[in-house]
């Protein structure tokens, strides 16, 4: 049996967390040879998210140093490296990503020829209304920009559903604070010549309130792509 970390980054996700955890295909993962542990990194939730996580028996890390998804994920990655687990899957626990797709990402990771697998919303099945028009167009523009800059094909830069081999996490150097973190992970993988593949996933309507500011965060993502294109290592 191999050890897998399933990482859920949260900030006020009390409406979705238990639903997502309930849907994790534990039996299927065991049949595939994976023992998994659930890890939550929490960015200052005030709605009872942390209590729910602890009631569910999850390992909880409290984010330190300020708000932002990027900051929380960077701290969680450090804990992961210390754990010794062979692989990590991360997904947002807001109900948009379907945990039943986790085995698809892991099978692609195990198939060889890759170090990182992303779950592509834009090639998969999307519920009506799950992604607004502005976000849909913005995701395409940012993805096209990323592929043009880095010459490494993906179809969904801003997805929050990723699977990593241990070596990929160890090689990434990141300094993102907020929602530009996925763009920087992609850039870091490209710089480190990590092989990125993807599988189509299901994308559902969100449970709870969205945190993303489409225009503001879109600008941050584009800036991160441009900066990291010319700098192999993070710069402030």
Helix/strand order, N-terminal first: EHHEHEHEHEHEHHEH
CATH class: Alpha Beta
Distance between the termini: 41 Å
When the domains are counted, the total is 1
Q: Average pLDDT value?
A: 95
Descriptive overview:
With 236 residues, this protein is an alpha/beta fold. It has one domain: Alpha-Beta Complex (Spore Coat Polysaccharide Biosynthesis Protein SpsA, Chain A), CATH 3.90.550. The chain has nine helices and seven strands; from the N terminus they run E-H-H-E-H-E-H-E-H-E-H-E-H-H-E-H. It has a seven-stranded mixed sheet, with helices on both faces. Helix 6 runs parallel beside helix 9. The longest helix has 18 residues. The chain is globular, with a radius of gyration of 16 Å. 43% of the residues are buried. The model has no long low-confidence stretch (mean pLDDT 95).
In a nutshell, what does this entry contain?
The chain is an alpha/beta fold. The chain has helices at residues 17-22, 26-31, 49-55, 69-83, 102-110, 133-150, 166-171, 181-191, 214-230; strands at 2-10, 34-42, 59-62, 87-90, 116-126, 162-165, 196-203.
Detail the topology: elements first, then pairings:
Layout: E1 2-10, H1 17-22, H2 26-31, E2 34-42, H3 49-55, E3 59-62, H4 69-83, E4 87-90, H5 102-110, E5 116-126, H6 133-150, E6 162-165, H7 166-171, H8 181-191, E7 196-203, H9 214-230
Parallel strand pairs: 1-2, 1-4, 2-3, 5-7
Antiparallel strand pairs: 4-6, 5-6
Helix pairs in contact: 6-9, 8-9
Record keyword descriptors for this entry.
Spore Coat Polysaccharide Biosynthesis Protein SpsA, Chain A; 9 helices; 7-stranded mixed β-sheet; 21% strand; 7 strands; 236 residues; alpha/beta
């Amino acid at each position: 049996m191999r050890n897998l970390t399933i990482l859920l980054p949260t900030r006020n996700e009390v409406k979705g967390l238990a639903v997502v955890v309930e849907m994790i295909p534990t039996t299927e993962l065991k049949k595939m040879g994976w023992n998994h542990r659930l890890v939550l990194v929490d960015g200052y939730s005030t709605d009872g998210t942390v209590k729910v996580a602890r009631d569910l028996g999850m390992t909880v890390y409290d984010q330190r140093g300020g708000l932002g998804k990027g900051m929380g994920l960077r701290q969680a990655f450090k804990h992961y490296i210390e754990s010794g687990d062979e692989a990590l899957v991360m997904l947002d626990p807001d109900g948009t990503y379907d945990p039943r797709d986790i085995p698809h990402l892991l099978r692609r990771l195990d198939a060889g020829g890759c170090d990182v697998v992303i779950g592509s919303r834009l090639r998969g099945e999307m519920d009506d209304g799950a992604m607004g028009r502005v976000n849909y167009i913005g995701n395409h523009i940012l993805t096209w920009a990323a592929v043009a800059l880095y010459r490494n094909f993906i179809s969904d830069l801003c997805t929050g559903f990723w699977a990593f081999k241990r070596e990929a996490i160890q090689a990434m150097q990141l300094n993102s604070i907020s929602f530009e973190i996925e763009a920087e992970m992609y850039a870091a993988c490209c710089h480190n010549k990590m092989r990125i593949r993807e599988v189509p996933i299901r994308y559902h309507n969100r449970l709870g309130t969205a945190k993303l500011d489409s225009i503001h965060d879109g600008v941050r993502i584009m800036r991160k792509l441009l900066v990291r294109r010319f700098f192999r290592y993070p710069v402030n």
